[in-house]
Design brief:
This is GTP cyclohydrolase 1 type 2 homolog. The protein is of the alpha/beta class and 365 residues long. The protein has helices spanning 3-13, 47-56, 80-90, 100-103, 109-116, 144-153, 208-218, 252-262, 292-297, 327-331, 334-345; strands at 26-29, 38-42, 60-63, 94-97, 120-129, 132-140, 167-176, 191-204, 226-230, 234-250, 269-270, 278-287, 302-306, 321-324, 350-353.
Length: 365
């Protein structure tokens, strides 16, 4: 299939517009129209991973972390980033990254960790706002159903577990066509009064263009009266981290042993034990220290994350237990997540997991 077929599907699940501003998710190397036959999935795209793709005949590498975060001005092979890009281009291997956009969706990286821990009632820890918009459009009664259906088909009107949601107000509109107008109803120079319905729908900001195209195509007027507003409302399926409950409470030492077993950890760095039962766990794969206040507000007993610095551990202030499990370790199951996602959709497409341990951090014990 074409690269675009695969990437468009992945971006339906984790839209690129959901990535953080510093990120570089998406197709980094490759032509979207190129044909691909076999994919290799890895957490990191290193030189060894590219060599593995060459050996196994893979023509696309899907990694969680982008190999390129900043703009490259020269390709001299002076560092591993340049060497990876040069080698991938030389061997016609596409490079695709699905990073913070996959972190930021329910069902993504953090949900996978919660699944490994068998957490219940999992929800986004810090939902994002300004991702929703509201469209108001005025439609003559004769075309209300057609316009509303077109908006729904384009992705408007989905709210939580509901779709085809709209609010409709009946009234009338007035207008007068000026010279050069070609009104659908009435005559140039004559004020018209038409029975209309005001349709209001909410939609994800990323779908705005498709929704407007659908609206214009279905609407009979030469000039379509409409407004679009950006909403403050949070989108509760999109945001940073997750929060969930253990099926049964356990003490802190049991919890640490449980984390070590379920997440295949060799070591856990943690704050002092608080001698209380653990029921509620906040999770952020990778560097999640920025979510500590959210974890506290959510009532978490433990915050599972990575990349904590020495002084940041003091910020726990005995409100909860911080468990730093390591960056690679917290995101390792992303590879399994991507494998399952792709195999379920493209049953005849070959997808492999890397056999390379890309964790740059080693432990001596």
């Amino acid at each position: 299939m074409k690269i675009s077929t695969l990437t468009q599907y992945l971006e339906q699940l984790a839209p690129l517009s959901y990535q953080e501003s510093y990120d570089n998710s998406g197709l980094i190397v490759g032509n979207p129209q190129d044909e691909i036959h076999k994919a290799l999935i890895a957490l990191d795209c290193t030189e060894d991973v590219v060599d593995e793709a060459i050996q196994k005949g893979c023509d696309i590498i899907i990694s969680h972390h982008p190999i390129v975060f900043k703009g490259l001005k020269k390709f001299n092979g002076k560092n591993y980033v340049e060497r990876v890009v040069i080698k991938a281009i030389k061997h016609n291997i596409a490079l695709y990254a699905i990073h913070t956009n996959l972190d930021n969706v329910l069902g993504g990286v953090n949900s996978k960790i919660a699944e490994k821990l068998a957490l219940e009632n999992v929800a986004i820890l810090s939902p994002k706002s300004h991702l929703l918009k509201q469209l108001t459009v005025y439609v003559p009664r004769t075309h209300v159903e057609a316009v509303r259906d077109a908006l729904f088909e384009a992705g408007a009107g989905a709210v939580g577990n509901y779709d085809q949601c709209s609010y409709n107000t009946i009234g009338y509109g007035t207008f007068r066509g000026q010279e050069g107008a070609n009104p659908t109803i009435g005559e140039v120079g004559v004020q018209e009064r038409v029975e209309e319905t005001k349709i209001e729908v909410v939609f994800p900001a990323m779908k705005e263009r498709a929704i407007l195209v659908a609206m214009y195509a279905a609407h009979p007027y030469e000039e379509v009266a409409h407004t679009i507003l950006t909403l403050e409302n949070s989108l509760h399926t999109v945001g940073s981290g997750v929060i969930g409950n253990l099926p049964a409470g356990m003490d802190e030492m049991e919890l640490l042993a449980y984390l070590k077993d379920k997440l295949k950890l060799s070591v856990i760095r943690h704050t002092k034990l608080l001698d209380k039962a653990v029921h509620r766990i906040a999770i952020c794969g990778g560097a999640g220290g920025f979510l500590l206040s959210e974890a506290k507000r959510s009532g978490a007993d433990v915050f599972v994350t990575a990349d904590y610095k020495y002084h940041e551990f003091f910020d726990a202030e005995d409100d909860l237990l911080i468990a730093d499990i390591g960056h690679f370790e917290s995101e390792q199951f992303t590879q399994e997540l991507l494998l399952d996602i792709i195999r379920k959709k493209f049953v005849n497409f070959a997808v492999l997991l890397t056999e390379i341990d890309t964790n740059p951090i080693k432990y001596y014990s």
